[in-house]
Amino acid sequence: MKVQxxxxxPGLDLLRFFAACIVMIFHLVFWSWAFPAGQVAIAxxxxxxxxxxxxxxxxxxxxxxxxxxxxxxxxxxxxxxxTPFKFFVSRFTRLVPGVWVCATITLLAWLLIDANTRPxxxxxxxxxxxxxxxxxxxxxxxxxxxGVEICFYLLVLALLFTxxxxxxxxxxxxVGLASTLFxxxxxxxxxxRHSAPFELxxxxxxxxxxxxxxxxxxxFFAFGVLLWSRLxxxxxxxxxxxxxxxxxxxxxxxxGENSLKLEKTGVEFSPLxxxxxWLGAMAFFCLVVTNNAKIQQLPIWxxxxxxxxGLMTYPLYLLHNVTGGALMGAFVDWGASTPxxxxxxxxxxxxxxxxxxxxxxxxxxxxxxxxxxxxxTRWQTSDRAEGVRRAG
Length: 392
What we know:
The protein is an all-alpha fold. It has helices at about 10-35, 40-45, 65-80, 85-110, 120-130, 145-160, 170-190, 195-205, 210, 220-230, 235-265, 270-290, 290-295, 300-320, 320-335, 340-360, 360-390. Helix 4 runs antiparallel to helix 6 (about 145-160) and helix 7 (about 170-190) packs across helix 8. Pfam families: Acyl_transf_3 (PF01757).
């Protein structure tokens, strides 16, 4: 079944919210004790005790890969009907105001807990975060994904600016192919973990430049772009073949990242569960897109709830790690059991994310759009005046 036109897909808001939740559970329930050098462990003072919760929690990081696929799909839909200026404004207002609010809250959380971090260091991390500096350290380690997202946006913006919109799909096929070939090479080299090729691949694997050039995660953005082409436009065997290839590449990337978690924590992991989680999420993705017309007929309150969950996702992702960890640690210090502290921290982060998505974020987005509209009007007026002057 083929979706007749690109439009809002409520089911993707539910998938986005699910991805944010499993990342949150991963950080608060597993990373908080398994990786003592991590920010969530520092923020929670290492008091979490979830050593028996190892069935699902260790694999929630695969939510990030789900985010990247959704971005590939949503951005190409946005680019299809947008000018370069409108695309830039839409991405700026989507990313920046939320970071301004959430980074400020995270800074306050750091200042309120005894984390043995100098205020000047925190200020530097805060400035890097609100300025979207591509290199850390950031006020919260989850901000690493923003630079990756922005690099994808810049690629699409460049194609819009040069009026080469039609090249989005073939170029993303190239990006996805390069990423897939890298992970194939990593997997093959990994058969001998003491070999020089594996050491080379390992050095590249988690370097920041490999992230920003989309070598690491380009396969997921490409998968999202091709899902749009396959589900929204005309399906073809060629697109299906590309999707199968990128599904393999995505699983290889997840298996590679799984090995990193093993190295950092010393806990045994099988890559099968995170791969299954991601593939299951992709099956759900296809289901909600192909049945979007039916989903749109749900009661208004249900559609509004799905939309609110989608809007909460961004602040929830930005706040859960440090702020959620600080809250959980504080509740344990105040005498709550670890499971109770977790539930209370999750509830408070959820409530805070709902408030941000409801009050300060839309207000800042509205002001930002108004500023860009004013600048555009002035630029157009100046352009017309210059044209009249030259004609005269």
